[in-house]
Design brief:
Blueprint (H helix, E strand, L loop, with lengths): L16 E4 L5 H18 L5 E2 L13 H5 L5 E2 L6 E4 L17 E5 L22 H7 L5 H4 L2 E6 L15 H9 L6 E6 L2 H4 L9 E3 L5 H8 L5 E3 L4 H16 L5 E5 L20 E4 L2
Parallel strand pairs: 1-5, 2-3, 4-5, 6-7, 6-9, 7-8, 9-10, 10-11
Helix pairs in contact: 1-8, 7-8
């Protein structure tokens, strides 16, 4: 079998590879890369970053995804033979069982759980001051991590995007009640001062001031009791990586996601494909 991730692999001389056009924010980019990763495994061809198709990030650090997947080679002169385009944002359609060309570029959002493989693992090696970060938020020990879940409140750019404006207050309250009383919650938000005023948050909640998206996902991945995500691909991935780490420790992981992902004016198709089988969908 082809070695899919190799630091010695030279993509410029490769006879075959698969990549994905990376666009929008980190949560979206992770779905785009994850789909290419899944196909690289199924087709036994190398996964690469096709750098001419890695667009500037709409928010966050452009380099974060490269820190998370440092062993995926960068191809600076990528010239795909075929582009596979997704028809909708959330739509899931089975992809070919065999590669239809040698050098393939995926174009689309690919926001469907079935496109994501459990083997899609991020690296946290580039987190600066990781030990201090874990100490600051009391996530140093297994005992602390198994008693911590995270909540994500996304407000910042969503205020400018009407189709993302879903009221999640009752959802947060309902999901919090489903955790044992000895579980504490780390609350992450891009507008923390506003999130602090939410009446549903109580003394079990600790408001995290970390703003770096890489560090934030790292902290989310260490909350092993579970997750209460927003209608956000970013916290979707926080739950994915947290569950991944918890399962490796033989732990039960509870993930909750809101039943309404988009408000009126959003994409016409159903957002149901984004929900993974391991998530509990709470009515909004």
């Amino acid at each position: 079998m082809v070695q899919l991730y190799s630091m010695t692999f030279d993509p410029s001389n490769a006879s075959s590879w698969i990549s994905s056009k990376l666009q929008c924010g980190l949560g979206n980019r992770l779905f785009q890369l994850a789909c290419a990763h899944t196909l690289s495994e199924e087709w036994s061809i190398p996964l690469v970053f096709a750098m001419p198709y890695c667009l500037p990030s709409e928010h966050g650090d452009f380099n974060t995804i490269f820190k998370m997947f440092p062993n995926v080679p960068k191809c600076w002169s990528a010239s795909p033979e075929l582009a596979i385009e997704q028809k909708g944002i959330f739509q899931y359609e089975p992809l070919p069982t065999m590669p239809p060309a040698n050098k393939i570029l995926l174009k689309g959002c690919w926001q469907a759980a079935e496109y994501v493989s459990d083997s899609f693992k991020a690296s946290w090696d580039a987190v600066k001051g990781a030990e201090d970060l874990l100490k600051q938020w009391q996530l140093e020990t297994k005992e602390q991590m198994v008693k911590t879940a995270f909540i994500h409140v996304r407000l910042g750019d969503y205020k400018l995007l009407p189709h993302h404006q879903v009221n999640l207050l009752s959802y947060f309250e309902t999901a919090m009640k489903r955790f044992p009383e000895d579980i504490r919650f780390l609350v992450f938000s891009d507008t923390m001062e506003e999130a602090k005023n939410y009446s549903v948050f109580n003394d079990r909640c600790v408001f995290v001031t970390e703003s770096d998206e890489y560090n934030t996902l790292f902290l989310m991945s260490r909350c092993w009791a579970g997750a209460i995500t927003a209608n956000s691909t970013f916290s979707w991935w926080g739950a994915f990586f947290g569950r991944q780490a918890a399962l490796e420790e033989g732990l039960e992981y509870r993930a909750y996601m809101p039943s309404k992902w988009m408000a009126e004016g959003g994409p016409p198709e159903s957002s149901n494909p984004i929900y993974p089988p391991w998530a509990n969908v709470v009515s909004v």
